[in-house]
Predict the structure.
Amino acid sequence: MADPALLATYLPVLILLLIAGGMAVWMIGFSLVLAPHRPDPAKTSAYECGFPAFEGTRGRFDVRFYLVTLLFILFDLEIAFLFPWAVALRDIGAFGFWSMAVFLAVLTIGFAYEWARGALEWE
Amino acid sequence: MTPADLAFFVLAAVLLASALGVVFTRNPVHAVLLLVLTFFNAAGVFILLGAEFLAMLLIIVYVGAVMVLFLFVVMMLRVDPAKMRAQGRAALPLGLLVAGVLMAEMAAVALSFAALPGAASPAFALPEGVTDARALGRVLYTDFVYPFQVAGLILLIAMVGAIALTQRARPDIKRQSVADQTARRPGDAMEIVKVTPRTGA
């Protein structure tokens, strides 16, 4: 276990999580227990402006959503590498600075490729 | 039992329960959401161990990005639960084999780490007054510069690979070209005709 003084700083987060979780359980749990449940086909069917639903809701998503999230993850990871670098910049000197510069340059090549191929455009 | 111990047991219990839920739930979207809950509890355990930066990373990268990707993959595949169950039963022996190998590997790592001389010694603990992000940053960009650059190359390969696999040329779609629009002069599009009165154009 870590230093209790550090953990004490997370007490507000814990309280927030407890209240949020308790609220969710409260709202869903009580409506599950107390509210009347008399489902019939009309009530449980998907509502589509008064029409019967045309097709199932498990429609296939476009693969471009996947591309956008994947590119997002890659740049998210790039940012994740920047945090400890920024915090420790005074300790690691010029070598550490330039090692990050090379890392960023490599990813900038990828970014330029991405831009040139039009992967950022939503046609 | 200190409050930290109590928090650990609650977090660990919810973590294990939601991890089991990921495996046993029928609905793949529910499985993804339970995996999000698992990651949140793992982040809590990280914080209890003093690894604040790793906890935040788990939430930012895994919950914020990887789980969104998983959700899109699940929705892209058009999973039919009934069919999936039949396929799952057919793949059970292979799945058990892979799971067994993974378990053995993890057990080997855990045992060899525990057997490492000084694994539990204070040398593995953070120096006084240094956050884990700073301790990580001190070694990651200097002592471990090659793995760090390899990580950058892997990200580049993933980027190029994802684009090469999914990007299709769409010549049928009209695109806006701002450069062409601003380069267009009045003379390209219209002609001014001097009309003398009462003669017609």
Observations:
- Chain A has one domain: 4-116.
